[in-house]
Amino acid sequence: MIPFIEVNYRGDSSRRVLQGSSYAGLFTLYALFTDPGLFSAYMAGSPAVNYADEYTFKQEAEYAHTHKELPVKLFLAVGGSEG
């Protein structure tokens, strides 16, 4: 999808952002830790991090163990009454 968008629309590949909330926020974090270079920034709003036995925390720990830094920007927002 990204190549199609970049060919057919004016875009700047150095300014790609992925944003999602709830389960889409969970996917945003998954994409971040799987292939961080695909986007220059990630925005996860109230990501469902408790899903699948808190897999996201394990994925983040694995990433931190094998990488010195995170080469992108991350905006993470959560509420006070999340379930």
What does this structure look like?
- There is one protein chain.
- The model has no long low-confidence stretch (mean pLDDT 93).
- This protein is globular.
- The protein has three helices and three strands, in the order αβαβαβ.
- By secondary structure, the chain is of the alpha/beta class.
- It has one domain.
- The protein has a three-stranded parallel β-sheet, covered by helices on one side.
- Helix content is 42%, strand content 18%.
- The longest helix is centred in the C-terminal third of the chain and has 16 residues.
List keywords for this structure.
alpha/beta; three-stranded parallel sheet; 83 residues; globular; 3 helices; single chain
Distance between the termini: 33 Å
- Please state roughly what percent of the residues sit in beta strands, choosing from under 5%, 5-15%, 15-25%, 25-35%, 35-45% or over 45%: 15-25%
- Kindly report the average pLDDT value: 93
User: Strand tally, please?
Assistant: 3
Uncertain spans, ≥5 residues at pLDDT below 50?
none
Strand adjacency order, main sheet: 1-2-3
| Tally of distinct domains | 1
Order of helical and strand elements: HEHEHE
Count every helix, treating DSSP H or I runs of 4 or more residues as helices: 3
Largest sheet geometry: 3 strands, parallel
Q: Label the structural class.
A: alpha/beta
General form: globular
Radius of gyration: 14 Å
User: Helicity range of the residues?
Assistant: 40-55%
